[in-house]
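G., the chain you wanted modeled:
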Amino acid sequence: MKGPLFYSKILLFGEYGIIKDSKGLSIPYNFYNGALKVDENPSEEALKSNESLKRFASYLENLDKELVSFDIDQLNTDVDAGMYFDSSIPQGYGVGSSGALVAAIYDKYATQKITVLENLTREKLLKLKAIFSEMESFFHGKSSGLDPLNSYLSLPILINSKDNIEATGIPSQSTEGKGAVFLLDSGIVGETAPMVSIFMENMKNEGFRSMLKEQFIKHTDACVDDFLKGDIKSLFRNTKQLSKIVLNNFKPMIPNQFHELWKKGIETNDYYLKLCGSGGGGYILGFTEDIERAKEALQGQKLEVVYNF
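Predicted structure as tokens:
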């Protein structure tokens, strides 16, 4: 047995900000994916995933039935038969590994599920987000539900505020363009929970709170608007500001060996780096007006282009 594929995602803008009602823009990233599967001869990875699914199944059984209910008997039968999540999505990299799993389980086992083919009103999107938030909280404490939503719908999602989200279109890519969004592999696995704890601790500080509101959220919102409008000049201006703000105020979320590279990008304008997800490792997002120049400046680093301007 093999189920449908669910893809990874990239939160282009809005990391940390969306906790405090900034805008956000999340896009599916089809390079990585995962599917539910049963094998005759499961690998060690598959057995580990199956164990995790067992725990997840018993967690799902206790979720509020008013919000969502599952065919738990079928889920348990399949898990007992060795079902696992076969995934190429790297864990702890900020590209939504648990989100894709949550989407796959909801798709296969939820009763009265909201399907992708329906007219997705704002109410339905918010309901899905609430369901996914509860489901994904099993994996890392407090989840916004956005990653599974992105994976489930396989559409870009625009977050206007906590209670206002919509599926959106993004400007089509230019195959000729030199500009690009890329992923930079830090080579370190990031843990979401500790990073969010640091952020929440910082939020107790009034100076940090006002920086977040007056600088971080302001430029995040502007980046989202610029990207959707296709205003590339303004996008790079705002991304540069955002990159500076993150370097100055979110240092613990940036792996040490990337502090200099981060600074170098801002000084040379060859590229601008920002967090991809909660940071602390995994991928770092990069924006450049000239991908060849960025590759040269970042020689020796692993780059993956995800979008061309």
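The chain has two domains: 6-167, 180-308.

Shout if anything looks off.
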